[in-house]
Design brief:
The structure is a single chain. Helix content is 44%, strand content 13%. The strands form two sheets. Strands 3-4-5-6-7-8-9-10 form an eight-stranded parallel beta barrel, surrounded by six helices. A two-stranded antiparallel ribbon has the order 1-2. The chain folds into two domains: 252 residues, Alpha-Beta Barrel (TIM Barrel); 91 residues, no CATH class. By secondary structure, the protein is of the alpha/beta class. It is globular and about 65 Å long.
């Protein structure tokens, strides 16, 4: 690399903190040794990075332990976030104390409610003896600077959390694959977060590694989608410098975003771009297909490594049951949808009739390998 990239900075919501637009995610620190973690963090600091996010559950605390060793003596150089999956006050206080010890610090800037899946989870968190009470006390005690929220559930849960919790920041997924089937993140969650002064950090800009063939376009696309910080699980020094170089170029403009969606090898001739050329019902059908498997299972030819990756990542969000319930509630005429699909000429080269057959089979939980 001829010239070291420098990360752009941004104010994080109403927190009063200025952070790098690239954040270092802690999940993939589990996969590498402490020595390599140190090299990665050094490189991250070298390009101007200052936001690091991890969780108590990553490797049973291993991520926090490794990062704690590396950050000792330079804790003041970073905005540090961690997370707990506990819903009750006693449980989350216990995990917070464990996080503080592992990270070798007397405070964590943001501590997240991690992985709530239902409104009932929010009820428990906000109820008597719930995790909210404990974190508010921890904030009063100076152990944390603010509260965060992260989940793999549909945006409705984020909207409710932003309304019900005194959040400083959220962590939500955002990339050019997921935007094709869950645009409510940009259309609803981001505007509400901004209205409330909640900082927005986005995970999975490479879709859990699915967009590995397109790191620069993926990162620049995600940078322009509305979040303030992109959280990347970088586990090599090269990853850090490559990501920083991409973000230093700034977000993709509208023409570049359109070209990315047109040419992305991962979207290919299967993933619906929601371009408006089909009826709303047909586009909604393909969005629900995305809830089932992120539109990854297409029964088209792929090299073995790509096929194995698709099988591993397709059901990461575990939203198939929700998708099938919404499909049943929609009350669509399947034959009419299929007839429409058979007559569509897609500008992205998708065989829409074929895709509709697969989408309907997925939503009816019928065997795909017979199609």
């Amino acid at each position: 690399m001829d010239k070291k990239p420098t990360l752009p900075q941004i104010e994080l919501g109403a927190t009063g903190l200025t952070v790098s637009r690239l954040g270092l995610g802690g999940f993939h620190q589990v996969e590498i040794s402490s020595e390599i973690v140190e090299q990665v963090v050094d490189a991250f600091f070298d390009v101007g990075g200052n936001y690091i996010e991890t969780a108590r559950s990553y490797g049973g605390g291993a991520s926090e332990e490794k990062l704690g060793r590396v950050l000792e003596g330079r804790r003041d150089q970073v905005v540090l976030a961690s997370k707990s999956g506990k819903r009750d006050g006693e449980g989350i206080r216990r995990e917070l104390e464990a996080s503080l010890k592992a990270l070798r610090t007397d405070h964590i800037d943001f501590y997240f409610f991690h992985g709530p899946a239902t409104i009932a989870d929010l009820d428990t968190i906000t109820g008597p003896g719930g995790a909210l009470e404990a974190l508010l006390k921890a904030k009063d005690d100076g152990l944390i600077g603010g509260l965060g929220f992260s989940s793999h559930r549909p945006p409705e849960l984020y909207l409710e959390a932003i309304k019900r919790l005194p959040l400083s920041v959220i962590l939500i997924w955002d990339n050019y694959l997921e935007e094709q089937w869950i645009p409510e993140i940009q259309q609803q969650v981001y505007p509400l977060a901004r209205e409330k002064g909640v900082g927005i950090t986005a995970m999975k800009p490479l879709a859990d590694g699915f967009l590995y063939r397109s790191p620069e376009p993926a990162l620049r696309y995600a940078l322009g989608s509305g979040s303030e910080v992109l959280i990347c699980g970088m586990n090599t020094v090269d990853h850090v410098y490559e990501a920083a170089a991409a973000l230093a170029k700034g977000p993709a403009d509208e023409a570049e975003r359109a070209a990315i969606l047109r040419d992305a090898p991962e979207l290919g001739t299967y993933v619906c771009r929601q371009c408006g050329g089909c009826s709303q019902a047909l586009m909604d059908l393909f969005r629900l297909e995305g809830h089932v498997d992120r539109q990854m299972i297409d029964y088209l030819p792929h090299d073995p490594a790509n096929y194995a990756l698709r099988l591993r990542l397709a059901h990461w969000f575990d939203l198939a049951e929700i998708a099938r319930q919404r499909y049943a509630e929609a009350g669509w005429d399947d034959q009419a949808l299929q007839a429409e699909a058979d007559g569509v000429s897609c500008p992205y080269g998708i065989n829409v009739g074929r895709k509709a057959k697969f989408a309907l089979a997925k939503l009816k939980d019928e065997p795909l390998n017979l199609l």
